[in-house]
Amino acid sequence: MKQPRKKSEQGVALVTVLMIVAAMSAVAVTLSAAVMSATTRARTVDAASQADWLALASEEVGRALIEEMFTAGEGRLSVDMPGFAEPVRFPIEGGEITMRASDGANCFNVNRLSITPARSDENAVGVSGPNAAEDFESLLKLAEIGDQNLTGLVYSAADWIDVDQSPGLNGAENAYYASSGLQYRTPGLPMIDASELRAVRYYTPDVMDALEPLVCALPESEEQTLNINTLTVAQAPLLSLAFSGALSVEAAGDLIFQRPVGGWPDVETFLTEPAIRQISPDLRRSELLSVQTEYVRVQAAIDFANTRRTVEIMYRRNGAQRIETVWRERKG
């Protein structure tokens, strides 16, 4: 005949069972957490991958936007058009693509600053434009940038892109960048983007912030025209430069601010503005003004499944219909 278990033995068995159940529960919770983490990670990776593909696709979306703007403006753009005045949003499944355009040639092209070998001459000129260095120095003055070192700013930028190693007036070539401990060299090539100036002597963050709306790096080294219908108030020094400074920056800003809806129909009409009529024809550089746009810069923000990608794309209008991509850069 079996003897009944003692209460102490029953208690031990119960505790053992409870410990086993607790251990299994802990394992189950750990496995569940691991599965959930892996699932979340997989979803995040998948969303990031899709966002990357959408960022690539945004190039075609931007091209379609520009073509639509040119069609709506009958071949001309103005700053009050959708896409310029406010961003354009394209809904997609799971998010949206937001695009904002700006005129890519309303700026001083720093690639004009290739200087001839006669570096000791203060009046050395750009090989592709007779007044490249002078124009840049004048623009810096009008924008009140680097008042104490205009020559250094001009020639350091020129030295960055020229092919020789002879520094210009207060400029900088490889010897400077090596001796200052920076340990890099001048490329001796045109800039791809004006942000390269951050690596150039004298171009401090404050200088770069002030120059941001005024300079660019375009593939050609020729002088570009300014579209008077897409200039912004921040770009008033550029318009002042087109009148040799006779049109003050403040007056240029007022003209841009008071621009008629849809812009001026042509440069001739613009030149009849009272603020301009009083300027001597000898000081007008009308060849720098236009109502046409050749380069368009688009900033695209892709928001998809709580993931954001930002892309900047430069387009060029080649002929009446063709919109070509000049470059594309992923930001952030």
Automatic annotation (TrEMBL):
Q: Which UniProt keywords apply?
A: Cell inner membrane, Cell membrane, Membrane, Protein transport, Transmembrane, Transmembrane helix, Transport
| Cell inner membrane keyword on record | yes
List residues of the T2SS protein K second SAM-like domain.
Answer: 226-291
Q: Which residues form the T2SS protein K first SAM-like domain?
A: 106-220
What superkingdom heads the lineage?
A: Bacteria
Question: What is this protein's record name?
Answer: Type II secretion system protein K
Q: What is the lineage of its organism?
A: Bacteria, Pseudomonadati, Pseudomonadota, Alphaproteobacteria, Hyphomonadales
Family membership noted in the UniProt record: Belongs to the GSP K family.
Task: Kindly give the Gene3D superfamilies that the UniProt entry links to this protein.
Answer: EpsJ-like, GSPII I/J protein-like
Write out the transmembrane intervals. 12-36
Q: Where in the cell is it found?
A: Cell inner membrane
